[in-house]
């Protein structure tokens, strides 16, 4: 089951990243490799993985976090840090396949925390959640406000948020050793084609129309993917508890399309569409993460221009 590779031991700490070949966390994998850390990635090479970054600079274990034997595999690695990011993240897929989404994501998170509680020298485990666990928002949500997930995907992530609290409270070995981030919508290189900005980029290249769910009125906050690795590093070293990760740069889908058209000078054709149960607005309060001294490297406009540079 596991794809073992010859190890090149480095002087830095050992970090294990689940889902470390995914759109977002492939960038985090490369970041810690560049820092000189010993990086171990658990990724089952499912849809959205980026195996092209496997180059011998880190260890890749080809395994699914929903399988129980990953617990022993993680413990055997003796990591100093764990980032649990592996998950089914496609909301539309989760609506079509709720049982599989809930089962796989929940079991994967259980296994990550089960491994963590058997690692006496673990410094920190990070659970990667999402701003979608707050549900429909009428104001910027703080980390201590009620969770009200409204899709199978966000429900599975909210369950993980509760698991983190439970494991830290129940097992003294994890006291003060768990953290959680709740990022807003991330965009950038390697993004899955079904995500909105990836769809916009493809439409700009091909001229094919994109579906405009609920008249394009859905409002989301956005962050460029190259800003994620530094904030992950900061929270692993300085963080305690939960952090919303966003810049309050929020737009409707119609506004995103207008911005992309302005950057590229091209039009994005659309077709009317309806998404059942769609939350119309997510927004979060980023006071806590800014209090750690975090400042994004890119504004939204800078990230968008870099991302769309190949279609201008």
Keywords:
312 residues, alpha/beta, Rossmann fold, UDP-galactose 4-epimerase, domain 1, 2 domains, 7-stranded parallel beta sheet, 3-stranded mixed beta sheet, 10 helices, 12 strands
Describe this structure in words.
By secondary structure, this protein is of the alpha/beta class. The protein folds into two domains: 14-186 and 225-245, NAD(P)-binding Rossmann-like Domain (Rossmann fold); 192-220 and 249-282 and 297-311, UDP-galactose 4-epimerase, domain 1. It contains ten helices and twelve strands. It has helices spanning 23-34, 70-77, 91-96, 98-116, 152-170, 196-206, 228-238, 253-264, 287-291, 300-307; strands at 14-18, 38-42, 59-61, 81-84, 124-128, 178-183, 185-187, 210-213, 219-224, 241-245, 250-252, 270-273. The strands form three sheets. The protein has a seven-stranded parallel sheet with strand order 3-2-1-4-5-6-10, with helices on both faces. The protein is globular, with a radius of gyration of 19 Å.
List the helices and strands and how they pair.
Elements: E1 14-18, H1 23-34, E2 38-42, E3 59-61, H2 70-77, E4 81-84, H3 91-96, H4 98-116, E5 124-128, H5 152-170, E6 178-183, E7 185-187, H6 196-206, E8 210-213, E9 219-224, H7 228-238, E10 241-245, E11 250-252, H8 253-264, E12 270-273, H9 287-291, H10 300-307
Parallel strand pairs: 1-2, 1-4, 2-3, 4-5, 5-6, 6-10, 7-9, 8-12
Antiparallel strand pairs: 9-11
Helix pairs in contact: 1-7, 2-4, 4-5, 6-8
